[in-house]
Specification:
about 130 residues, mainly beta, 1 helix, elongated
Length: about 130
């Protein structure tokens, strides 16, 4: 019986190909595609960190803070927020989007309330 299990284990190794190429399906996580012209919320960073827009522009932040693969070993998503200096902004979340329309010229600083302004911050300049 023990020999059967050893033979099956050896056969399964060869059946996998043993090469370096992965044939696993692409990750199907909960990351949101980066918005065109928007800002991606990744692990410990906003990308881009600064952005200039015209008055009346709506900016979209999309969470892309999940790592790993939900099919092979699970996935870890990290919560972040978009918190403006006046206290407005998004909730702490690990997926989804947040939108804000900027109707008044000025510079709007924001940060992640989890990581703080020193580690994760950005600015929107409205002209």
């Amino acid at each position: 019986m023990k020999g059967v299990f050893v033979a099956m284990a050896v056969a399964s190794l060869f059946a996998c190909g043993g090469g370096g190429d992965s044939t696993a399906p692409p990750s199907q996580g909960v990351n949101t595609p980066p918005p065109v012209g928007g800002i991606s919320v990744t692990n410990n960073a906003f990308s881009p960190t600064s952005k200039s827009v015209a008055v009346g522009t709506t900016v979209r932040w999309a969470w892309n803070s999940c790592t790993g693969d939900p099919y092979y070993g699970g996935q870890t998503c990290t919560g972040h927020s978009v918190t403006f200096d006046d206290g407005s902004g998004s909730a702490v979340q690990d997926q989804g989007t947040f939108n804000r329309t900027f109707d008044t010229p000025g510079t709007y600083s924001y940060h992640c309330s989890v990581h703080g302004a020193a580690l994760m911050s950005g600015t929107i300049t409205v002209q």
